[in-house]
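Thanks for the sequence, V.! I ran Helix-turn-helix type 11 domain-containing protein right away. Repeating your input here for the record:
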Amino acid sequence: MELTPRLQDIISILKEKGGSVNIRDLALQLKISPKTAKGYARELYRLGYIEMDENENMILKRENPENITDLKKTVETHTAEIEALKKEVEFLKEELSRFRGTKKVKV
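Predicted structure:
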């Protein structure tokens, strides 16, 4: 998954600061509210890029081959699901065309 430019900036800041930065310090550096910084931290946490400690420090996770493998499996699963859904949509378009008695249906 490609990160937004702002999330990429935060990862760069974390790397510059040795892998850890406090949310309030990040907010000051980016000139945003602490609430907004927390939102970015939650997103990076959800995506598996950081951990949070009890003092609201964002800690950059090191690349873990297991996480990459799990991520690849997830992407493959979702890709297969998307392809199956595309086929189902095409089938439904054909069925709708037959039902309406027309050759093509634009959806």
